[in-house]
Amino acid sequence: MDEYPYPIIVEGNWESEQAKSVKNKLQIYFQSKKKSQGGDCAVKYDDKSNSATILFKSSDIRDGVLSKAEHIITIDNQQIKLKVYKPSDVEEQADNIAQQAEQACGYQEPSK
């Protein structure tokens, strides 16, 4: 998957029985410039959770997808709103929360 180095994480409220359908819908949706601002991509689907990783060939395509305000796919006549974000956004949020917890506890780094 080295030719697709630009990932995003997609989460949605779909049923685990819909896994194969979801993977196909995500592939079609995120390949469509018209629907998602997307383009050439690959989908890694995690059937243990309601998430998938979409890997794009270029950062421009990924940025286009991230710039779109809302992403919705239809599965079994049900509209599913997708939460779309870069993996680094999660790490940054976790770091910020950890820093806030340290500040709230009055934790200070020992001086060397």
From TrEMBL:
Pfam families associated with the record: RRM_PARP14_1
Record-linked InterPro entries: Nucleotide-bd_a/b_plait_sf, PARP14_RPM_1
Annotated ranges, domain PAR14-like first RRM: 8-84
Protein name per the record: PAR14-like first RRM domain-containing protein
